[in-house]
Structures are given as structure tokens and as C-alpha cells.
Amino acid sequence: MRFPVDQLIFGPEDVDLSHSPLAGYLDRETYVLGAFNPGLTRLGNGNLLIMVRIAEALRNPVENGYIHSIRFADGSYVCDAWPLDSVDISDPRVFSLNQANWKTLALTSMSWLLPVELSPDGLRVEAVHYDRIIAPAGNWQCYGVEDARISNVEGRWLMTTCSVSPERQATSLYSSANALDWKFESIVLDHQNKDMLIFEGQIDGMYWAQTRPLGDLYFAYPPDSPWRAGPSINLATSYDAFHWKPHINPGIRPHAATTMRIGGGAPPIRFEDGWLSLWHGVEPNDGVGTYRTYWSLLDGKNPSLILRTDHKPILEPNDMLIQPLAHRIYLRDIVFTTGIADAGDHFIVASGEADLACRITHIPKTSFTN
């Protein structure tokens, strides 16, 4: 599907690593592996803000028979060394420990968040706010802060992120009165969940969120069910946005006719009489999978009810967009939508392209009225 605006707006070559929170701590050269998966919101001045995930990696992680990873520790950054014969390095993003009794990973990069201010249409960079970087601040995120999602709820900005550590892969909450100055609040989900999305508005005085718990075991639906077992998008409610209770009814589930793994994308936004939810589906391929963006319109009072949806993707990976960055490509077939903003007759949608750069797409609202 073609849209009037569909382009990259910010990428690795736009990042000045002299401002990195890692600067001065490591005796090894680093580089920007990717600048991607941007949270999106509209500021009070009318401009847009994208909160860009910067994955900063070691230029030469393998030395003298060891592979190294970066870790935040006691206010600084250190490198850990793992013997090459004890790990699997087939995935460029992570390496797995062969001698563990269960699946155990380490990262090849450290992620931190960079606020980038855009013009109201999202097509021009106005400012890069290096003075407002969000970096690891404790052992609960010693392997990085990933994939911000930003929601404006009744004039208050809430941002969820994935905090990665050996302790847990948890969801952390930040709050702000202006979407530029952020306060870390707490961990709000204490289980493996990379896709917590807070609805952009309350329902009967309650906060709502989509979650996506992960596990190694799923129970089968009946053979004639329209649904397929696997990771799904669940729902939770809260009185204060800090303490969350799972909703009794499920949310969006993978359809039996597909082989997709699904997860949350952009925070649900008000549209017509419901909530527009953009989510991702992943089809197996020879690599990490093909990521596409899909949509569902949820009931305005009971988001567990799907009013309409489309099994065709609204947004697909676009190799043509990343050709100028061909020398940096390490993954393909990925578009990962992480933000949405209302712009009158269309939505401005922010995505990560190929885990490499930030993509801005203008999608007419008529695209969601089938």
C-alpha cells in the first residue's frame, strides 16, 4: 500500500556519540548499530517528539577468543567477556550461552533513549535533545532501556519502556508534564513483556493498557477455533497507571489461519467510536522473521471487543527506504510500529525500519474504515 508520505527521518548517522551516556567509560570504540523504534507524541508547541532507541555497540566485540557485551554497573559502564566456545553468535543482535540449562541471552549493544523533536508534520528534525537522554539508572536496566511507547492521558504524558537485566525483563514507567522532562516512576510489570501500551485516554476513570506476556508454554485452542495458541495481546486496567490488574477478557489473539506471532505496536488512540490499535505480526523466514503492521478497531467502552480489523497489513517493510543505508544493514524485512499521532484527516505513524532507522508514514484515516 502506498501513502503520500513514507520516509526515513532519523538514523544512525544522525547520532553524535560524543553525547552518549557511555562516552568516556569504555576503552573500546563503539558505534550506532541502530536508531529505531521511536515512541511518538505531540508536544505542547505543536511539534512532534520521537523518543528514539539508540543501540550502541562495540566496533570489535570479538577479541582474543572472547565476545564482549556492555553492562551498566554502579553508575558507569563496563565490558563483560564470554569465551567464544561457550556462546552462539548467529543472531547479530544477541548471543546465547550454550552451557545454560535454559535459554539465556546477552546483548551485543547497549540501548538508551534519545528525544528528537520534529516539525508538526514529522518531516523535519527541529532539535536533538542530548541534554534529556534517558539512560540506564539501576541494576534493573543494566543491559539497556528499549522501545519507548508514549501516551498522553488527560494532559499527562506516560511512557513505558522495556528495562533489560539478568534480574528480569520488565516494563518501566516514566511520567512527564511536558514530554521532554521525564521522571522514572517504577517498574510496573514484573514479568517478560516488551509491549506494554497505555491507551491515550481513560474509560470510566480507569487507565487501560495492552500487554504481551511471553512464556515457553501455551495451551491449545480447540481444533475448530478461529484462534491459534501463542503470544497474544492482553489487556490490563489501573486506577493510577502504577498498579495494573489483568482484564478478565483476552484482547487481540493470533488467527488460526496465520502463522504469525503478534505483539503490540502503537498505543491505542481514539478513533470514531472506538480505539485504533496498530500491532505487529511476525511471519517466520530464514532470519528473525518478517515484521508487518496490522490494525484493529476496539470498542470504545470495552476494548476486549474488536469492532473491525484487517488481515492484510497496513504497513510493510520497505527495502527501498533503507537503500541509502545499505552499508549499515544487518537485518531485513522488519517494520516495527511504535507510535501514532492524530493529524486531522490522517495519522502520523512512527516505526522502526530494519532495526536501523526511524520511519514516518502519513496514513489517511480512510484506510481504517473498511
UniProtKB/TrEMBL annotation:
The keyword Secreted does not apply. GO terms for molecular function: glycosyltransferase activity; hydrolase activity, acting on glycosyl bonds. Keywords: Glycosidase, Glycosyltransferase, Hydrolase, Transferase. InterPro entries: Glyco_hydro_beta-prop_sf (IPR023296), Mannoside_phosphorylase (IPR007184). It holds the Pfam family Glyco_hydro_130. Belongs to the glycosyl hydrolase 130 family. This is Glycosidase. It comes from Sphingobium phenoxybenzoativorans.
